[in-house]
Amino acid sequence: MDLMTLDNQASLADAPSPLAPAYGTSSPAGESAPPACAPDAGLFRAVPASLRGALESRGFTELTPVQEAVLAAEADGRDLQISSQTGSGKTVALGFVLAPALSNERVGRGPQALIIVPTRELAAQVCEELRWLLQDLKDTQVISVTGGTPVYRDRQTLARKPRVLVGTPGRLLDHIKSGTLQLGGVRELVLDEADQMLDMGFREDLEAILDATEEPRRTHMMSATFPDAALRLAKRYQHNPFSIEGTRLGEANANITHEGYLVRHGERYDALVHLLLQAEGERILVFVERRLEALEVAERLADDGFAAQPLSGELVQAQRDRTLAAFRSGRATVLVATDVAARGLDVPDVGLVIHSTPPLNSEIYTHRSGRTG
Asked: Could you give the residue range(s) of every CATH 3.40.50.300 domain in the chain?
């Protein structure tokens, strides 16, 4: 017998959660927006003054736990270890951390804040969030350099001397080695999804990038979990770090329900189809172990009438972008993915995660489950 598990976002009416994603969202086409609520004065008093206008224009009326925890932390000048799930508002929390340094007069022309992420998709998401949040800060461009894009285009982008740079490890290191990127002016360095980058084999790249920066700087780590490899990296590069728990370390989001089913190995596909039919109308993420399995399962589901597409590490970047665009737009409602391919994904409104192949450990389970909720 095999174990198949699934996670789905609980109804907020049944399971109230402080992590409900209701911040700055727009109303669907054809619907009138509800009257805007005035933001809580005490809440916004703690937010850096340079960011309050952006939050108000975005429609914020409350903060998520990780955002509140960052503002409440008495950690001036300290390196931070922030534990929080995907979708918990941690990028806005990161903006709260960076804003004081970016509000000062700029020194030099290189990046002052460097954010390292595991995937191109996460880089795009982080850039999108920080651009609106930091829009009122003087001379603060937010750009990204990532693998899968032309190097010459990166050089043009870096020539604009961005103040905030977001990038993937391999591409950042390429530019450092070529002399295109100088990190001597970095004063805030962030490892976002640190545990995932280490799982993906980026330890040596991360160490080389960190070694290319200079003191004084603050080094922050953001992660859903802090396994031994992440703690070893923290011990080497962080100084007296301050821990902030947006969600308890290694804990899945509170508004996710978890179910498990014992299934005969030969009936695994039939069980998957049954679960998909029960969840009709939902955006669904199915996890499998191998790239070939992702392709085979997606093709079989498509033959059976499901709008399914595979996502695996063997896809070229252009195909990966098209697949994710189809999933986000709803043209594809089922995404069959490997763990590595889904690193850093933050697709809104994923109603159901199915572990067609059980995860290897609790950390992977936490990351998978965090794609919903």
From this structure: 2-10+251-369, 65-245
